[in-house]
Design brief:
119 residues, mainly beta, six-stranded mixed sheet
Length: 119
């Protein structure tokens, strides 16, 4: 079970840090990805971090602003979001792949956390 938290309302230019916690299960052996979906848009993959800490690339619009990281001691994967923009408004989801697999396939999803960027 994955549980996201950290979403909320933030002004343009602000920052948020989202957390994805494994509830009742360890994430240590799983690749974890962050996705987002805005109303009317397709789901977009933001980035993935492998069980060894390697990360995949970010969409051009997010490079330099969003950073994925993990703390296995806390069983948590983070998404640091800086310089937020209006079009970052979306529901943000984390997803886990099967234990031992690399990024690219995910079979467990969290319920999502809403991020709203508004002045």
């Amino acid at each position: 079970l994955l549980v996201e938290s950290g979403g909320g309302l933030v002004q343009p230019g602000g920052s948020l840090r989202l957390s994805c916690v494994g509830s009742g299960n360890t994430l240590e052996y799983n690749a974890i990805a962050w996705f987002r979906q805005a109303p009317g848009n397709e789901r977009e993959e933001i980035s993935c971090i492998s069980r060894r800490g390697q990360t995949t690339g970010y969409p051009d619009s997010l490079k330099g602003r969003f950073t994925i990281s993990r703390d296995n001691a806390k069983n948590t994967v983070y998404l640091q979001m800086n310089r937020l923009q209006l079009d970052d408004t979306a529901v943000y989801y984390c997803a886990a792949g099967p234990a031992g697999w690399d990024c690219g396939w995910y079979d467990t999803w969290g319920q999502g956390t809403q991020v709203t960027v508004s002045s």
